Amino acid sequence: MGNDSSKSATTHRTSGRKKLSLGVKRGPSVSVIQRHLETAQKSRVLQLRNFGMKILPEQLQEVCEILRNLDVSQNRIRTIPIFIGSFSNLKQLHLCNNELESLPNEIGVLKKLEVLDLSCNQLGCLPESLAGLCSLKILNISKNKFTHLPICVCHLSALNILDISSNFIEFLPDEVKFLKTSELNLNQNRLNSLNAANLMHCEALRILRVEENCLNKTDFISDFLINSNNWNFILTQGATFKQSVELKRLFSFHYDVRLFQFLCGKRMKKLGSVNATNPKENEHVWVPDAIEGFVLGVVIRNVADDRVLLKIEGTGHEKTICREELQSVNPAKLDKIEDMSSLSYLNEACVLHNLRQRYYSSLIYTYSGLFCVVINPYKWMPHIYSTTVMKSYRGRKRHEVPPHIFAVADCAYHEMLYQREDQSILCTGESGAGKTENTKKVVQYLADIAGAGRHMRSSVARSPGKGQLENQLLLANPILEAFGNSKTIKNDNSSRFGKFIRINFDQSGCISGANIEHYLLEKSRTVRQAENERSFHFFYQLLLGSSISKKGTFLMDDIDNYRFLTNGNLIIPNVDDASDLSNTLNAMKGMDFSDTDIDAVMRITCAILLLGNLSFSEDRTSDQAILVDDRVAQKICCLLGLPVSDLAKAFLKPRVKVGRDYVHKAQTREQVQYAVEAIAKASYERMFRWLVTRINRSLGRSANSGATFIGI
């Protein structure tokens, strides 16, 4: 798998539907509010962001019973009216970036509320009724004026994520019992101590963040590691600990060392930072090399104003080289760095060295700013794509977990979910870089975190039909690979077409449909291939994996007897075409292809192969082509349901229009062979186009369905 330098994957915001929020600063007019309310009647989502409002409009009561999501962020609201309690079905309430100083007790009756965002306000306390929010899962009260953690927060039984960063909290109360809380953010407070016993009741806690506090001891960290066997992560980077770097290295991913050993690396070399523009004696520099690209050298002395004598490490050879050809070396602490944009010297040698060192340690993913660079390992690494690894990346910020394509996909998903803007993930690279494999991993991750079964109760998720859409989305890959991929010199499973996969999501973030667009199928590969290459996989799967009865039904011959397949290799080492046929047919059945559809695909495929076996000669007295033996033509017509005479006439004497009349034009042998190949290529392309259309129909949605989409 590889992308960027091999392959790159990154998220881009693309134009989607127009957002409801407007940039009015003096409060919205009645007509504007009414227009938003009419929209909310259908979508059950109301956004009144950045309107400069000081109070909530009373007209909101018109949609109080149907509204699911209310966002009034980035206004100047100071108080919330008591009619907020009438929003009985509200699940998300966003009040961030306002001027709130208090909340009414009526907010505690919102029993279905799951997300409450109160960040960036002037709050110093919360009403005790808040403890009645029995469904609240996410609470954000960061960037307020809290001097202590409100007791009501400690009794939120369903709370999963709590963010109280950027306040003035000095200690945690003894009553802390977040039984279901998995993430607790205490960054940028005034904590001077943490009693591990206070948090021992937090059985589900996975992430504790305590950066930028007044903690000066590390004893509590060891207490947590000893007493909290369920914790996966402890983040302490950036804290005021004397040993913060050591803590990060020792304790990050403490309980998942085996799981993340191929995603996290350790530094190896011990080199100082060197500026190659003015190297000194005994300093290291990167030296150009015809074979390795760059090798490490040690400066012996300057022999002229622009030349340096140095010794190549490893070989010991001495070499005099122009100073301008040397490149700087980064300090040791940056070896195997996860994000190359953090390198002190971002030259070609340092980038290649960092990628090579990570690759030698089986660390195939590396960030480069917004991009994710992937080096194809040319071996299976299933342990870094397991379900457990996917769960570890779900909802994590990019710097909290090692580089991975899952992190790119998760970033795109959450940007789409919270910004309500369409996203795209671009996979680019040369043939064999790993674009296809990483695309499949993105689809797999999105299907896992956004499948219908993930957003329902377990009993509902197990009911028939639930989760079928995301399963079919995954089943599309084996079909597209069988008919659109082939072996090339660089890649045994090279995609010979471009595709754009559009995954649609509804308002709640569930997958609501998908659509696949294909481009530029290399149809010429149907009739001829270069040396050591193959045609499309399905030809070989069908001939090597079909039963004797199927071979008789579809008039198949030995694979060596087909002219269209004898130009290149027939067998790929370590690839079982017979087994792959079973996977392809199972995927087609999973996509609701009928037996008639599958038989039709097999008939057309066999007919295309037989077209290459048609033999023609020329008449002695003219250049007219002649069909030497019509037995192959009879097989083709039997498979396609055509009269033999019509097929022969179409190739040998095609009907062409001359003026207003039609005449039959005589064809030479070369012209007939060209026509046969053209028909074979066109037939395969149309069959491939039909397969993609049929897959899209099984996915059950058009290209424009869903509230937002992620394109891959």
UniProtKB/TrEMBL annotation:
Residues 335-712 form the Myosin motor domain. It holds the Pfam family Myosin_head. GO terms for molecular function: actin filament binding; ATP binding; microfilament motor activity. GO terms for biological process: actin filament organization; left/right pattern formation; regulation of signal transduction. ATP binds at G429, E430, S431, G432, A433, G434, K435, T436. InterPro entries: Kinesin_motor_dom_sf, Leu-rich_rpt, Leu-rich_rpt_typical-subtyp, LRR_dom_sf, Myosin_head_motor_dom-like, Myosin_S1_N, P-loop_NTPase. Residues 1-13 have a biased composition (Polar residues). The keyword Metal-binding does not apply. Keywords: Actin-binding, ATP-binding, Coiled coil, Leucine-rich repeat, Motor protein, Myosin, Nucleotide-binding, Repeat. Belongs to the TRAFAC class myosin-kinesin ATPase superfamily. Myosin family. This is Myosin motor domain-containing protein. It comes from Acanthocheilonema viteae (Filarial nematode worm).
